[in-house]
Amino acid sequence: MSTTTPPRTTAENGVAKGPTTSVLAALGGQNLSLIGALVLVLGLFGFLNENYLSLSNIQVIAEAATITGLLAIVQTVVIICGGLDISVGSQVGVASVVSAMVFTSTGSSAFVGVLAAVGVGILVGVLNGLVIVYGRVNPTIATLAGLAAYKGLAQLLSDGRAQGYVLNNDFFVFLGRGKIAGIPVMVWILIVVAIAVHVMLKYTDIGRNLYAIGGNDTAARLAGININKYLVAVYALIGVVAAIAGILLTARTGSGQPVSGSEGLELKAITAAALGGCALKGGKGGVGGTLLAVALLGALENGLTVEGINTFWQNVAQGALLVAAVVIQQRRNGERAVGLPH
Predict the structure, then answer these.
(1) Are 179 and 45 in contact (CB under 8 A)?
(2) What Å distances lie between residue 74 and 26, 85, 179, 271, CA to CA?
(3) N or C terminus of the chain with fewer C-beta within 10 Å?
(4) Backbone angles phi, psi at 278, to 5 degrees
(5) What is the SS3 assignment for 222?
(6) Is the full-model pTM beyond 0.70?
(7) Residues 84, 146: contact at Cβ < 8 Å?
(8) CA 342 – CA 340 distance, rounded (Å)
(9) What is the pLDDT of residues 205-244, one digit of tens each?
(10) pLDDT digits (tens, 9 = 90+) for 58-79
């Protein structure tokens, strides 16, 4: 006599596991908190201003958050493997200036301008990686130096002012103002980059090795992972994505911007990654949480602007959110207070 074993519908603790429970488990507590905060912010500003939740304003929020989102995604990657890059905003400025200046100096060739910007992005990214790996400089210090150096480079190249005019070119107009299926091209680029990085992190050996490096670099090295190669490659990836962000900044503003539009992006990117669940010690994080945090920051920033609140308060809010994210991480990890007994 044969019997059929019914599928398990209860957890080990005896609590029934239905579809809702499975969805909640997949989302995770961190992401659920971000979704709740996002809904709260949208609801609050939607109540205060009837135009806040209009389709046109939602599009403004999405476009404004695109550049931050791109940088936050690659910041997530570098934090996962135990590093940090404070120079991403300055890299965007360099790429923006190079793309516009090369475009105008080559007789309005968008392809050459884009190629030059990406090339510069790879160069500065690899330089950061080499300084960190072979110069044995702490990533925070190395990229803090890069923040100043690349900002200075962008200002030297541009003489401290916007350069070139690109809105007479169909390609740049398409990047900055075009739409596909009603969604801005800039947002599509963010979606493509997000999916590619998510797949890399979750479904490839490269991603598993990055998590291993951030979780325990000694064990990763003993397992045969070439940590130096991975770190240089990650910083090169940051350079490429920062260059893409710089090109989008040029397309959106119509000219190369050495500082305006790129200053402060590093803080936004790090804040989004931390809010999204990245452990600043490495080994933990993901693209989904980071994108939710980017959406939250974008919605908050736009809401404060719509309500006419002094823009300086946006910096205060970002700083407070970064501190709150780190405090929550430390509490969850059971870290003791500095100088106090266990």
Answers:
(1) no
(2) 23, 9, 24, 13
(3) N
(4) -70, 130
(5) helix
(6) yes
(7) no
(8) 7
(9) 999 999 999 999 999 999 999 999 999 999 999 999 999 9
(10) 999 999 999 999 999 999 999 9
Tokens of 238: 């940051």
For residue 232, give the nearest of 129, 108, 160 by alpha carbon: 129
On the question of pLDDT at 322 being above 50, the answer is: yes
CA distance 181 to 191: 14
How far apart are the C-alpha atoms of 300 and 311, rounded to whole Å? 11
Residue 339 bridge partners (DSSP): none
Q: What are phi and psi of 45, to 5 degrees?
A: -75, -30
Q: What is the DSSP letter of 16?
A: B
Q: What are phi and psi of 51, to 5 degrees?
A: -90, -10
Residue 161 neighbours by CB distance under 10 Å: 13
Total residues belonging to the chain: 342
Contact 143/75 with Cβ under 8 angstroms? no
d(CA 270, CA 144): 13
**Token pair in block for residue 270:** 């790090």
**Alpha carbon distances (Å) from 267 to 113, 263, 301, 336:** 27, 9, 14, 26
Estimate to the nearest angstrom the gap between the alpha carbon of 289 and the chain centroid: 11
